Amino acid sequence: MNELRKDYILNRFVIVAKDRGKRPHILKEARAVEEGRDSCPFCPGHEHLLAGILNEIKKDDSWIIRVVPNKFSAVSLEGDPHIQMHNKFYTFASAYGTHEVIIETPEHGKELEELPQEHIQSVLKTYVWRIRELNDLANIKYISVFKNRGTAAGASLRHSHSQIIAYNIKPSWISEELMTAYKYLIENESCPYCEIIEQEKASDRRVFEDEHFVAFTPYASRFPYEVWVFPKNHYPNIALLRNEELFALAGVLKKLLLRLDDLGYPPFNLKIHNADLKGENFHFHIEISPRLAIWAGFELETGTVINTVSPEDAAKFYRGE
Amino acid sequence: MNELRKDYILNRFVIVAKDRGKRPHILKEARAVEEGRDSCPFCPGHEHLLAGILNEIKKDDSWIIRVVPNKFSAVSLEGDPHIQMHNKFYTFASAYGTHEVIIETPEHGKELEELPQEHIQSVLKTYVWRIRELNDLANIKYISVFKNRGTAAGASLRHSHSQIIAYNIKPSWISEELMTAYKYLIENESCPYCEIIEQEKASDRRVFEDEHFVAFTPYASRFPYEVWVFPKNHYPNIALLRNEELFALAGVLKKLLLRLDDLGYPPFNLKIHNADLKGENFHFHIEISPRLAIWAGFELETGTVINTVSPEDAAKFYRGE
Question: ipTM score of the complex?
Answer without folding.
Answer: 0.94
